[in-house]
Amino acid sequence: xQLTDAQRLDWLRLIRTExxxxxxxxxLINRFGGAxxxxxxxxxxxxxxxxxxxxxxxxxxxxxxxxxxxLGGRLIATGEADYPxxxxxxxxxxxxxxxxxxxILNRPAAALVGSRNASTAGLAFTERLARGLGEAGLxxxxxxxxxxxxxxHRASLQTGTIAVMAGGQxxxxxxxxxxxxxxxxxxxxAVLAEMPMGWEPRGRDxxxxxxxxSGLSYGTVVVxxxxxxxxxxxxxxxxxxxxxxxxxxxxxxxxxxxxxNDLIRQGAALVSEVSHILDVLGPIIERGPDADAAPAxxxxxxxxxxxxxxxxxxxxxxGDLDPTPRRRAPALFDRPTCADAPPEPEDDRARxxxxxxxxxxxxxxxxxxxxxxxxxxxxxxxxLELDGRIERHGSGTVSLVxx
Length: 403
Hints:
The protein is built from 15 helices and 14 strands. It is an alpha/beta fold. The protein folds into 3 domains: 1-70 and 312-335, no CATH class; 74-287, Rossmann fold (3-Layer(aba) Sandwich), CATH 3.40.50; 346-403, Arc Repressor Mutant, subunit A, CATH 1.10.10. α8 (178-186) links the parallel β5 and β6. The radius of gyration is 21 Å and the shape is globular.
């Protein structure tokens, strides 16, 4: 799928609307069939609850896009070729990402995270791990923070690194890492941001960033972390996303090792050399991002973190709005039945869904059997993918996810 310029602006306006986050974005797209229709409907829907929400104007979206372009960046959307396929599989994946740098987001990757107040030994071991992972063909992902993150980026400049920012692309944090960002971009790396241009990172933006770091990666390695470290949030997200978690052991006398030692006691893989990571991730990477997901590990999903996004939620058949986040979005093609609900879309979607099953089928075959164009099939498949209803296999085939 490739959005048109007009569709990309509509997506940007919708995700930048007050009260719209990753889940409500998906639900609005699913309900109204596209961002343009959702934008038209949203003011009246929110007005029914006594507080009319107006999306940003097209001019405002154009200004943000132009500012990003001036900085050398662009917006990529879920379902597009450059959007990271691993990240697209996780709960609450960002509908849009601002990307600067090379299109390396679909290369096999591992995250390296840890303490800002890192020890000399921790920094040296981070460098050894980052170099070893890079030499083995893995991209190193981290969060651009001081300490472990910065050393991981610097040690993998030559082999490829991705920095995930908590603020907008023009709001580097910490500001002292502006030169590091330029080095990453100059060496063929990538810098990602979910937040708007001009957005100064706040406390809750860092956990948001962390779920992207783990979502981009087959595994997350925590080098040093105190018991209340943000790196442990990244490790938790990796578990929720059914990714591997590794921890470097440390002295029980060092507070910076309390979190990593706890992770090992709770079942994280102990790492004392890079081969310990590669031995675990190698077979997983070989199966590829479209392989069957690992069994769920029983961890709570991100819907249990309501403070991250103050999202409005569609609730009920008549389009009432409920500000309380829900654990899961409703079924993709649940449609309103009340008299004042928006009209039913054409039945192309329902026909395509009816043709899908647990056995993989090619998109061309779907289009022929359903009697619709390939563009319509891809649009419906994107909606299903956003809702976690399908999985993609090799050779362009898809199947429904068993529930």
